[in-house]
Write a structure and sequence with these properties.
The chain has four domains: 78 residues, [2Fe-2S]-binding domain (DNA polymerase, domain 1); 54 residues, Uridine Diphospho-n-acetylenolpyruvylglucosamine Reductase, domain 2; 114 residues, Uridine Diphospho-n-acetylenolpyruvylglucosamine Reductase, domain 3, CATH 3.30.465.10; 122 residues, CO dehydrogenase flavoprotein, C-terminal domain (Enolase-like, domain 1), CATH 3.30.390. 32% of the residues lie in helices and 22% in strands.
Length: 501
């Protein structure tokens, strides 16, 4: 008899045994539980109307995160807690988040309001109603922008919602009983892996790497599922039947971040938010890209390993990982092998991955002496948009001469790809404008970009060349662009067709 799914909901354990493994939390909330506060807008994680907050135990510590319900398959919520907008005023009184939204007129048509409220509640739990007992009485605008980055509103212009985020800190606190939730979730943790099935659809969630590799060897055609930010769209948009699914999210070995042999090792299922935070500790130049990589709810569930394994030519992680010399670890029952990430991509959606293998870790070298590094993203919106061009540059600068030059671009070819001809123009050369111009011209030999809805071929080439120039302006040895000027440039430059760097 297959295991039922169980999760904590409305103060008690809730059990599901008759839903398809690919039924989303949003569908289940609205259609089966009739909790209509959570809205369906895009069904692809872009609009935020379906935002809920998930509670789970990580190494026996409670973690609360905002997620998009439209992308969460029900079995991935096994052993976790689900909170929707209806939970905030269950005692008959408005939560401070809701009070602030009312006072600041943060809702007009109201369709997006539940998603905003849940994103703000997630922020409230992290910054105001905290375990530390040291609540913030005000929030920085950047904190608010990041928290709300996954929510779209077509009525308010966002100002009153931002006002509400600032005002909610000043209202009397409404405490959340974290300890009671911890105890409830502790009693729901499985000792055996979940194996759930409905008719011909099966969902297995192994707990150990050994069990995962055994399942993969036995089921090489099964779909590997991590955060579902890509796979979820196969179901909600393409209406695909996934058949057998192997879920990686419960494998403890894949959730680790550690220093190993001079490398930062990031497990394949470490969420993007945590992965970027770990990498930015060593490479603070990643901070801007980190904020612009999707929305916070997407970064809470998407994984760095999934982003790399998907191998999209417009994925934002691959260019900077490639120029920093990242390695990936591929594991099977037979062996474990490592390779440079740049060798993993063989062609469009083609990878050097055997049927019985799983990508288990991404390993990032630590910064080298005299290393200069930058990564840039061009998109039509500053936040939450797919790149037209994503660029990364790294080199060692000794005096005025470059060495170990590496540059890579996304959006310029069928795979994330290094610009080897441009690199050759700069290797062991003086870092001056004359050599820069040669390298910019050489990019036309490295790439023949396509035109699509995001940008034309000419635009991509011109902006790729200009991003290389920007790298020079910021790092040239004689007169680098001041940091304040860099910040202003990054946030204010709008090109002729409305694309922002």
């Amino acid at each position: 008899m297959p295991d039922p799914i169980h999760f904590y909901f409305r103060g008690k354990k809730h059990q599901v045994s008759d839903a398809a493994p690919t039924r989303t939390l949003l569908q289940y909330l609205r259609e089966d539980l009739h909790c209509s506060g959570t809205k369906e807008g895009c069904a692809e994680g872009d609009c935020g109307a379906c935002t809920v907050v998930i509670g789970e135990l990580k190494q026996d510590q409670l973690q609360m995160t905002s997620v998009n319900a439209c992308l969460q398959f029900l079995p991935t919520l096994d052993g976790k807690a689900i909170f929707t907008v209806e939970d905030l005023n269950a005692n008959g009184h408005l939560h401070p988040v809701q009070q602030a939204m009312v006072a600041c007129h943060g809702s007009q048509c109201g369709f997006c309001t539940p998603g905003f409220v849940m994103s703000l509640w997630d922020l409230y739990l992290r910054e105001v109603d905290t375990d530390s007992g040291c609540p913030k009485t005000s929030l920085e605008r950047k904190q608010i922008d990041i928290a709300l980055s996954g929510n779209l509103c077509r009525c308010t212009g966002y100002r009153p919602i931002i006002d509400a985020a600032q005002q909610m800190c000043a209202l009397p606190r409404q405490q959340f009983d974290r300890e009671a939730l911890r105890q409830a979730l502790r009693g729901m943790q499985r000792t055996q892996a979940l194996s759930y099935q409905l008719r011909d659809q099966r969902f297995d969630a192994p707990h150990t790497l050994a069990a995962l590799l055994s399942l993969r060897a036995a089921k090489p055609a099964a779909v590997l599922l991590a955060g579902a930010t890509d796979v979820g769209l196969w179901v909600t948009k393409q209406l695909r039947d996934l058949g057998e699914i192997i879920y990686l999210g419960e494998v403890a070995e894949l959730q680790q971040v550690a220093l190993q042999d001079g490398m930062l090792s990031i497990g394949a299922t470490v969420p993007l938010e945590d992965a970027y935070q770990a990498a930015a500790n060593y490479y603070p130049e990643l901070n801007d890209l980190w904020q612009r990589f999707a929305s916070l709810p997407i970064r809470h569930i998407g994984t760095l390993g999934g982003n790399v394994a998907n191998g999209s030519p417009i994925g934002d992680s691959m260019p900077w990982l490639i120029v920093l010399g990242a390695q990936i670890v591929l594991s099977s029952l037979a062996e474990q092998r490592s390779m440079p990430l740049e060798d993993f991509y063989l062609g469009y959606q083609k990878k050097d991955l055997r049927p019985d293998e799983v990508l288990t870790a991404v390993q990032l070298p630590l910064p080298a002496a005299r290393q200069i590094f930058r990564t840039y993203k061009l998109a039509k919106r500053f936040d939450q948009d797919i790149s037209a061009v994503c660029a990364a540059f790294s080199a060692q600068l000794t005096g005025d001469r470059l060495s170990n030059v590496r540059m890579a671009f996304g959006g310029m070819a069928a795979t994330p790809k290094r610009a080897t001809m441009a690199e050759a123009c700069l290797e062991n050369q003086v870092w001056d404008e004359a050599n820069l111009v040669k390298a910019m011209a050489a990019l036309a030999q490295d790439y023949a970009p396509l035109s699509d809805m995001r940008a034309s071929s000419d635009y991509r080439m011109k902006t790729a060349q200009n991003l290389l120039r920007r790298f020079w302006l910021e790092t040239r040895p004689d007169a680098p662009l001041p940091k304040t000027a860099v910040d202003v440039f990054a946030r204010s430059t709008i090109t002729a067709d409305g694309v922002q760097a």
